[in-house]
Amino acid sequence: MRRSIAVAGSPAPTDRAVAEYLGISITGLANWRSREMVTTRQMVGLLTAVVKASKRRTESEAIKPIVEFFQIQRTTVGNGSNCRIFDPGKGENEHPYLTGLKRELERHRGVYIFYDSRGRALYTGKTKAQSLWKEINLAYNRDRDPNLQRILRVQHPERRQDFRTSDEMRRQIRPINVRLHELAEYVSAYQVSEGMIGDIESLLIRAFPNDLLNKKIENLTWG
């Protein structure tokens, strides 16, 4: 039993940890050790306690918020063509809060939600294979269906040239494809148990199908 609840590289669990895992008291654990015979009723009682303890653990660990409505601090990387949601800095410029947030996002898998400047949900995604940190930044830069991420605006010149007023140089307001990093202002991230990641994402999309930029709506697999 101790081996089944031990974490690799950690010391053997204490009697208190074993008792909590089984859903019984330390006194109850001592009584079980001293028993030479076990009745059917006693075994049923122990199994009932174990099931209840397992249910409590599952409910408490199913989904945990890592960060909610974090205001994105957009920074460019490489040649400037890609962005990250923030840069924790290095050395004397390292920001302890951002460093801690990045570390937690690197440690966990789960689901995330991007929001616009008014706090309305834009896009939700999930990750099972790679960290939330990597997946969130990939989604932040990903080229997606232009019919979904398109807004009406004026395309202004990017090369060096003299300014001309709109009266002098008429520029049409037209649909322009944009990446998520041009729309998103906030992000939330949640650690989710591996078996529930897909369903949690599906539930979020199905709950707000007319608000999100998600194109594909997955089926729920619960039950």
Main traits of this protein?
single chain, alpha+beta, 223 residues, 4-stranded antiparallel sheet
What does it look like?
By secondary structure, this protein is of the alpha+beta class. The protein has seven helices and eight strands; from the N terminus they run ααααβββαββαβββα. A four-stranded antiparallel beta sheet has the order 1-8-4-5, with helices on both faces. A two-stranded antiparallel sheet has the order 2-3. A hairpin with a 4-residue loop joins strand 2 and strand 3.
Total separate domains:
2
> Looking across the biggest beta sheet, what order are the strands in?
1-8-4-5
Number of strands: 8
Cα(first) to Cα(last) distance is 30 Å
- String of helices and strands: HHHHEEEHEEHEEEH
Shape: elongated
- The helix-and-strand class reads alpha+beta
- Estimate the mean pLDDT confidence: 84
- Tell me the fraction of residues in β-strands, as a range: 15-25%
Q: Which regions have little confidence, pLDDT < 50, spanning 5+ residues?
A: none
Itemize the secondary structure elements and their pairings.
Elements: H1 2-5, H2 15-22, H3 26-34, H4 40-61, E1 63-71, E2 75-77, E3 82-84, H5 96-107, E4 110-115, E5 121-127, H6 132-141, E6 150-154, E7 173-177, E8 186-192, H7 197-207
Antiparallel strand pairs: 1-8, 2-3, 4-5, 4-8, 6-7
In short:
The chain has seven helices and eight strands. It is α+β, with helices and mostly antiparallel strands and 223 residues long.
